[in-house]
Design brief:
The protein contains six helices and nine strands, in the order αααααβββββββββα. The longest helix is centred in the N-terminal third of the chain and has 23 residues. The chain folds into two domains: 58 residues; 163 residues, no CATH class. By secondary structure, the chain is α+β, with helices and mostly antiparallel strands. Strands 1-4-5-6 form a four-stranded antiparallel beta sheet, with helices on both faces. It has a three-stranded antiparallel beta sheet with strand order 7-8-9. It starts with a helix and ends with a helix.
Length: 228
């Protein structure tokens, strides 16, 4: 992961230096015309050209929303195999339904954040959860990483179906980056012991997320009916 490039995504691009050079260049060019001073004209033209090149250079270094998203997505490569390895399970053991994964930018532990051109928040922290379903248990793998530093955390949890009391989606507001009105929707799995795992949802209205949650709920109902 290119941490320096990711940092540029959150760093505002300013044009104070080039603007100053443009103004000075124009002033010198005007003086050259009035006083017929060729040296003022040459210096002014040079400063003006330098400022334009400076602006072009700055624009080339701007990181777009799409470029930042791709950088983050690359970190999720082979996530399924990593999760299976950490959980110590074989894929053949967890075939009750297809594995379910949720991932999104996280406000938790994020140093930087900004609203993209698409109106969506992006932060310097990313979190993903992958769940596998065996005949008697839900195996959960959580992976969170920083996009600006080489900082990663992993955790695993295993829940018996009988202990899972709810699988839900909800919405709330969070405070971050000087704002207290950031709306988010999240997924939450809660057990009878009061433990839970949760994650923000990037697009709670997507068919993939809806189908995944419905499949999980259907499996839980089926398992609980068998246990009765």
């Amino acid at each position: 992961m290119d941490y320096e490039k990711n940092l540029r995504y959150f760093t505002p691009t300013t044009y104070g230096g080039p603007t100053f050079f443009i103004i000075v260049g124009i002033v010198l060019i005007l003086i050259a015309f009035g006083a017929k001073n060729i040296w003022c004209g040459l210096i002014g033209t040079g400063l003006f050209a330098l400022a334009i090149l400076w602006i072009i250079s700055k624009k080339k270094k701007i990181v777009s929303d799409e470029e930042y998203d791709l950088s983050v997505a690359a970190e999720l490569y082979d996530l399924k195999q990593k999760a299976l390895s950490r959980l110590g399970i074989d894929e053949d053991e967890v075939k009750e339904i297809e594995p379910i994964s949720f991932d999104s930018y996280s406000f938790e532990g994020a140093q930087c954040g900004k609203i993209g051109k698409d109106g969506c928040w992006r932060t310097s922290s990313y979190k993903c959860i992958m769940m596998f379903f065996s005949p008697s248990e839900v195996h959960c793998y959580t992976y969170q990483f920083d996009t600006l530093l080489n900082k990663k955390t992993e955790s695993t949890d295993v829940y018996f179906y009988r202990d899972v009391v709810s699988v839900s989606t909800a919405s709330d507001t969070v405070s971050a980056f000087g704002r207290n009105d950031i709306k988010r929707e999240y997924f939450k799995l809660t057990t009878s012991g009061g433990t839970s795992i949760s994650i923000s949802l990037r697009d709670s209205d997507s068919e993939k997320i809806k189908n995944s949650i419905n499949a999980m709920r259907a499996l839980l109902r089926e398992k609980k009916q068998i246990m009765q």
